[in-house]
Structures are given as C-alpha cells and as structure tokens.
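Open question from group meeting: does this chain pack into something compact, or does most of it stay loose? Before anyone orders reagents, we agreed to write out a predicted structure and look at it together. Recording both the input and the output here so the notebook holds the full record.
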Amino acid sequence: MKNLVCLLALIAATVAHTRADGANGAPEFIRTFQAQCAALAQTAETNGAMTVSGRDGWLFLASELRHLSVGPFWGESAVKVSRAMQPDQADPLPAIVEFHDQLTAMGIELLVVPVPPKAIIYPDGLLDKVPRDSAGRVARLDPALQAFYAQLRLKGIRVLDLTTAFVQHRSDPEGALYCKQDSHWSGNGCVRAAAAIGLELSATFNDYPKQAFTGEWDTVEISGDLWQALGDPKPPKEKVRIRRVSRASQRGTVAPSRTSPVILLGDSHSLVFHCGDDMLGRGAGLPDQLALELGFPVDLVAVRGSGATLTRIGLLRRARKEPATMAGKKWVVWCFTARDFTESDGWRKLPMKP
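Structure tokens returned:
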C-alpha cells in the first residue's frame, strides 16, 4: 500500500510538471501517459528491477517506459534525455543521416524500421484507462517518435512506422504482436513486420528470381526475459504462436544468404524466434518471414545488444574482412527497438568504407 501511495504521488508530481511546461503542446492525455510511464520506470529502476508488471499478465521493460516519458530526444534535447555515454553521441539524427548518405553513395537504399514500444500498441496492458479515437481504436501516444520520423523523412530517409499497421492487427487471430512476458515482439509480430517491409521493397524485386517457401503455424512455450527477471513465485510461462518457414521442397530452416540483395541489419528483434537458444525459437523470426514475403533469403547482420551503433560496427567489420559484402546489395533494412533512441549507450558516426 505504501508503494502504491508513493507511485501515485510521483505520477501526480510528474503530471504537474508536464502541465507547467506544456510538454511541447501535447494533449493532456499524452502528458498523463508520459507521466505514468515515467513513474513506473522510476519505481522499477529505484528497486533495481527491469520488469514492470501491467494488467492481465502483461509485463513491460522499465527502460522502454522511460523512453516513452522523455519527449523529444534529438537536437538540443538529446543530451538532456539520452543515456549515451558520450554527449556528442546522444543525438541519433546525425548518425542515421550519415549512414543513409554513405549507403546512397554506394547505390544502396536504406529503410529504417524502428520497432514500436510495446506500451504504444498495448497501452491497455499497462493502464486502466486508454484514450481511443472515434472509431474505437487505441489513440497514438508517441508524438516524439512521430515527430522524429518526420525529421528523418525531411532528410530523404525512408522510415517504416509499423505503429499504424500494428494497432490495426493488435487483436489478430494468431495472437498478440508482442510477447506478454518478453521484451521482444511475438512470432506474429515478426510476421506482420515482414509483411509491411515486403510491401516497401517488393517493387524493386518484381523481376528478381523467386524461390518457393512455405510457412507453418505452431504454438510454443517461452521463458521470456521479463518473466525470468520476476521474483518468485512466477506466473505460468507464456505460450505464443510462431510461423516456421522452410523451403517448399524440403523441411528445415532457411539460412540467411551472403549473396542476397537485401541486408537485414538489426538488434535482437532480428534474432528472436530465428536463431534458437535464448532467442525463444528457430526458423520463425523476422529473417525467415522476410524470405517468405520476398521470395528469397535475406543477408543478416544482427547483434544481441543495442541496434544503435553495434549493428553498424558489425557490418563495417564484415565489410573490412570481406570486401565483397556490399556488392550487389540493393537495400539495407535497419531494424532496431525504438527505445534505443534514448536508452542505448550512444549513436556513433562510423566510416562505412572498408
């Protein structure tokens, strides 16, 4: 009871602060949402916890809730809200623009695909009252992310904002788009993301040779990272739906291809349900679903850590070791969690020429 009173007091104080400074003109329901996220994140982090328990069995990552609470995170605001280790690496905009320009000089298109925060798609899993539009859909609660994507587009960078499509499919028959007990999207989230990415890329490959793949749905039990971080006793493990992809002519997973015209550059959202072990499953992740959507395997450069800088370092190291890495590439699909805009250790500029 005492913790609840403290949490309510913290929310009230944060709401009062956002009302005072106007929160950059955001509607009051968004300011309230940001304040609630801030309070929940601060309480969890004060207690040394990464997991925030929501409603109906939903679990959320404290750092992701913090990201949703800070407002604008680029330009002059970056150093105020970023957790980057170096102030000159706090702003994600210069690093993304430079990477785009480097790829453009090589004749390669960049598609930036931030993974929407779970609480933006399922705020009703976190809060009792969630604002909805006139059609009954969950209202957008991420004005800072939308404004940042607009800034990227002004720089000529293609951004795929999955939020609209995810909100439309959040009650999909194959299950939620995020794991309730893990910080990643679900197997069905991988399917929906791949479908959206495929639409963005498909025109480039109308005449590209296609291969036959099949997808078969299955149900698996997972040990989510947020579930593992809970104290005992823990609730029962979650079961999620996944779509395993294989070649039509044979069973088994589809390996990424170094000769593919598409590089999927990503964090663990590109590995979950793809590579097995602690990534919850095999053959059903984003690379697998993209193969099914595009009709050919993609190349894969992904890390379990932050997608802000480490992924580009991985690509650069491979390019230096294998000079032909970028030969024949048409697209780089850069997929990483949106929380990295503030919660990563920084956005370094990197020379992409080997």
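Observations to bring back to the group:
The chain is about 35% helix and 15% strand.
The beta strands are 51-53, 59-61, 109-115, 158-159, 213-222, 238-247, 262-266, 299-302, 331-337.
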